[in-house]
Amino acid sequence: MADQPQLSADYTPPAGAFEGRVILVTGATGGIGEAVCRRLAEAKATVVLLDKDLKALEGLYDRIVAEGGPEPAIYPMNLEGASFDHYPEVAQRIREGLGRLDGLLHAAAVLGKPAPVDHYDVEAWYRTLQVNLNAAFMLTRACLPLLRASDRGAVVLTSDASGRAGEAYGGAYAVANAGLEGLMRVLAAELAETTSICVNSLDPGTVATRLHAEAYPWDNPFELTQPGQVAGAFIRLLGPDGRDCHGQALTVAPSPKGEG
């Protein structure tokens, strides 16, 4: 696999870059999702927090408010069980409550257990494809009218090297990420000449998240990159400094360990 373009995670947005902007983040209470949400709020964005765990959403809401950010919006939603009709409802609620949408970050994911295809659990396959790929497609589709109305919309798909290289035993997670890469390229090509929306995928590398711990419990999380160390690269793609990136499969060049 050819080397992917890298984005530095050592990034702070310029003053006012996110003031008045509305950003929707799925998987908002996960490690990377929360780190990005809090950084966005620190930069004065209004963040729409979408995740399945209401208690965790309320805790993140409280932390953002305590840290002085704009009041976020909470949207409890289980992507695994959501029907086709639920996704337009998300966009409609954002339109009615906030009046705009400037960015969409897909950070929600399930990993499942690494296994060869001939032994892969069929239910786990469907569940993983639904959360990681189908939900990203349906939510992006529903939100496109709002994003088109923004003067600088952005869609960022959180990806993984397994989807770009076709790693053995990657199973549904790798296949879903390969699908996300395809969705990114198709959408970027369709929007390139007609909108201001920038679409990219971003691989944060191996990060100490709950997702990683469930699949690789033997890894020491303190020896891995922390979520806060990669958040800056996502922030860059969602803001004005990300305008030079479109249709790119990017990777994060993380900050030195101990930061973030």
UniProtKB/TrEMBL annotation:
Domain of life according to the entry: Bacteria
SUPFAM superfamilies from the UniProt entry: NAD(P)-binding Rossmann-fold domains (SSF51735)
Keywords: Oxidoreductase
Pfam family, one: adh_short
Name of the protein this chain belongs to: YciK family oxidoreductase
Cross-referenced InterPro entries: KR_dom, NAD(P)-bd_dom_sf, SDR_fam
Residue span, Ketoreductase domain: 21-205
Family stated for the protein in its record: Belongs to the short-chain dehydrogenases/reductases (SDR) family.
